[in-house]
Amino acid sequence: MKYRFIIPVLIFFCVGSFTSCKEPESTGPENRTDSLMLKVKETDLTSATLSLHTAGITYPASMRLTRNSQPVQTFSLHQPDTTLIDTALTPSTTYTWQAIWKKTETTFLKGETVTGRTMDSTSHEFTWQIDTLGARGSILRDVVIVNDTCVWVVGEINVIDNDTGDRYNAAMWNGKVWKKYRILLPDWADDFSAMLINCIWYDGTGLWVFSNVGSYAKFKIDGEVLFTGKTLARKGTPKKIWGYSPDRFYLVGTGGSLTWYDGKDFHLLETGTTIDLLDIWGLNENEVWACGYIHNTGVSTIVRIKNRIAETVKNQLPGNLILMSSVFSVRNNEMLLSAEGRIYRFQTEHPEKLKVELIGKSPLYMKALGYRIRGRENDLWVAGVRGALWHFNGSSWHSNEQFYGQIREWKSLDYSPRLVVAAGYDYLNGDNGYVMIGKINR
After folding, report:
1. 3 state SS of 364
2. Distance between CA 234 and CA 379 in Å, rounded?
3. CA distance 383 to 391
4. Residues 315, 302 contacting (CB under 8 angstroms)
5. Would you say the C-alpha torsion 375, 218, 133, 173 has a positive or negative sign?
6. What is the CATH number of domain 126-440?
7. In the prediction, which pLDDT does 284 show?
8. What is the distance between the alpha carbons of residues 276 and 263, in angstroms, rounded to a whole number?
9. I need a surface site. Which of 16, 103, 200, 334 has the fewest CB within 10 A?
């Protein structure tokens, strides 16, 4: 009886000792204290951004990222959270990724696989309409798309009736027709008039506009003015607004001017340049970029605003690029730049070593300056002088030749997933204000 009892116990002990001599490749969910959590944050045409969260592992940790079960990155992890970017992907393709921790030479912890799909290229086919707003002396300076049935343009819109001029400075498209508005703004003598408006921004609750002299108004999308004022903390003429939350925005302008609005007050920030700043865009509230040039020389600059401290960037741009007219971003840690009729991209992580590369498989020369870049990675638009309007669908550039060569200048551009709108003027036919609306054919 004694031996019958001991033998099973010995057998159990030996089996248990043998199986515990080597850890399994992937620890089971029960009693697990270490974990890897991988998520796909976003994808574009040829890359994917993933977030990795780890718990219960020892740092530094030897990590590996696989794509479709094949290793693509090996790195050392020194903190629980990190961001991974996988590049050189194929458009319109589904991929799986997995994070693996090399615990020892022979044991590994594998996270769950995650799946993502890259973007597809878009169509170059659009349906266009061109509208004239105003007679001689009219010019449209800026445009913003609120939604598919609410588009605002601003500038100077003159209406001639019986040889007497009547001035407007804004117009709203409701999806069918345009309605003109007079947004009354104060000058330095506190006289109100429908003076020329240079820029407009929609903050999610209302629309902000700024005049040539820096006076401003905020109004509802139906045109009802909420309040007006005069910006004391400024220099130069306002040119463009970029904001990151309701009532929080930056304003750039001539003479290197940069103003920040904190929801209550305006603050003038030094930029270290006197070059006119013509466009501004941010990755987030703490990583904002602006650019511009001097009109008579083309001498250009790029300004980086980091945590509300601005500085001009010492860069290594090819051939000392001039005519830097627009900046924009379509993905993290990257900005797009319009300069000398070409569109470039550059990484923001090391601005002291700023280098740019052309977008697209072959160099793009638009025959004209591109005043504004807007859109998405696979639906990118550029509008500028001589009626230039270019579209990048993720793999190729297309020039809308029916608009190029006309004596027309697009001063601004805005984009939504269903619309693209360019605004400017035609200086052959007496400076008429022009708007072009493109409806995307899906």
Report:
1. coil
2. 35
3. 9
4. yes
5. positive
6. 2.130.10.10
7. 92
8. 25
9. 16
